[in-house]
Write a structure and sequence with these properties.
Elements: H1 2-21, H2 25-28, E1 39-43, H3 50-66, E2 70-74, H4 81-89, E3 96-101, H5 102-106, H6 108-111, E4 124-132, E5 134-139, H7 147-156, E6 161-165, H8 171-183, E7 187-191, H9 195-204, E8 209-213, H10 214-221, E9 226-232, E10 258-264, H11 270-284, H12 287-295, E11 299-300, H13 305-325
Parallel strand pairs: 1-2, 1-3, 6-7, 6-8
Antiparallel strand pairs: 3-10, 4-10, 4-11, 5-8, 5-9
Length: 331
């Protein structure tokens, strides 16, 4: 009998230790996130950009809601794969998250010869954060009002239309080549090392066209030096509803909306995912956060984990098809 009591006591101590050691320990005791333990949000681009600003806006609200600090850490480099690799290797305890655009999951595997992650197996989907399109912008010297007029100009001046991108294999490059193929025009690709350089040279008239992120496109169009002629989205931008979509202009296949999402390391417990989804959804629905996205021409769009998983699959397939159609070879 004594031996039996000792066995039960040892068993109870072992199970308690196992619970405390597990990633769900805080959650099981109703204390996730644990007070004083920060939630790290990794961003694969440098501080000061739109992606970084969005992450910090959400982090401020998340800190208030969760009762512990949410800290944004910038890990730029290698097409955002440095930040992704760190999250893949992290413990699935909810304290390390990745804030990343759809290109990380849907484009990198199709455009880069070496990608250190599987977009379907190496991340746990938590929620979509926001959705927003790329916008085709042109220098005012072309004197075109929409995408159809741009196509007419390019056909009248074969080989003279220069398209900037923020790097070979990026969404701005792929969209430019897809647009050229759909329109039946010849363009010259001019790659830059980042978004700022490409946007600057478009403003200066050194290049004539550029698929830019909506926030920068809207800001630069306000100078009068460039014009927005088409939105790569199924619907118009709420922040600039005067700009028509490509579908409205009779140009097919240019309606793939970009999105940004929160994911975690692989094998996160479902209960923990649900808890994080609830916290992030509340943060994303906060009026100040929604307004921050809106002012940047994005729309806060929290989702279920399953919906994000489906978004990853759809984007992966659609981008893969687009990249194959333009004949892009992995770099």
């Amino acid at each position: 009998m004594a031996g039996s009591r000792i066995s039960r006591r040892h068993f109870g101590a072992w199970t308690a230790g196992a619970v405390l050691a597990s990633p769900l320990a805080g959650l099981a005791q109703g204390t996730f996130p644990q007070p004083g333990r920060p939630i790290r949000i990794l961003v694969g681009l440098a501080a000061g950009g739109s992606l970084d600003g969005q992450a910090r806006s959400v982090a401020r609200r998340l800190s208030e809601i969760a009762g512990t600090q949410a800290v944004v850490e910038n890990k730029p480099g290698a097409s955002m794969m440095l930040s992704a690799s760190e999250v893949v290797r992290a413990q699935p305890d909810g304290y390390t998250l990745l804030y990343a655009p759809s290109s990380l999951f849907a484009q990198n595997p199709h455009t880069l010869s070496s990608v250190p992650y599987d977009p379907f197996k190496d991340f746990t989907p938590i929620t979509v954060a926001a959705k927003g399109p790329l916008v085709l912008t042109v220098h005012q010297s072309l004197n075109v009002k929409d995408a159809k007029e741009l196509i007419a100009w390019a056909k009248a001046h074969p080989g003279q239309l220069n398209f900037a991108s923020f790097g070979t294999g990026t969404s701005s490059h792929i969209y430019a080549m897809a647009f050229a193929k759909a329109a039946g025009i010849e363009v010259t690709h001019v790659p830059y090392k980042g978004t700022a350089e490409a946007a600057r040279d478009l403003l200066e008239g050194r290049v004539q066209a550029y698929f830019d992120a909506a926030p920068t496109a809207i800001q630069n169009a306000a100078t009068g030096r460039i014009r927005m002629v088409g939105v790569a989205s199924p619907k118009r931008m709420p922040a600039s509803p005067e700009v028509p979509t490509f579908t409205e202009q009779g140009i097919p296949g240019m309606d793939l909306t970009s999105w940004i999402a929160f994911v975690g390391p692989p094998k996160m417990p479902p209960e923990l995912v649900a808890r994080l989804n609830a916290l992030l959804t509340q943060a994303l629905n906060a009026p100040d956060v929604k307004d921050f996205y809106y002012r940047g021409a994005w729309e806060a769009s929290p989702s279920t984990p399953a919906e994000l998983g489906n978004e990853i699959r759809v984007a992966y397939d659609r981008w893969g098809q687009m990249i194959k159609q333009i004949g892009f070879e992995k770099q």
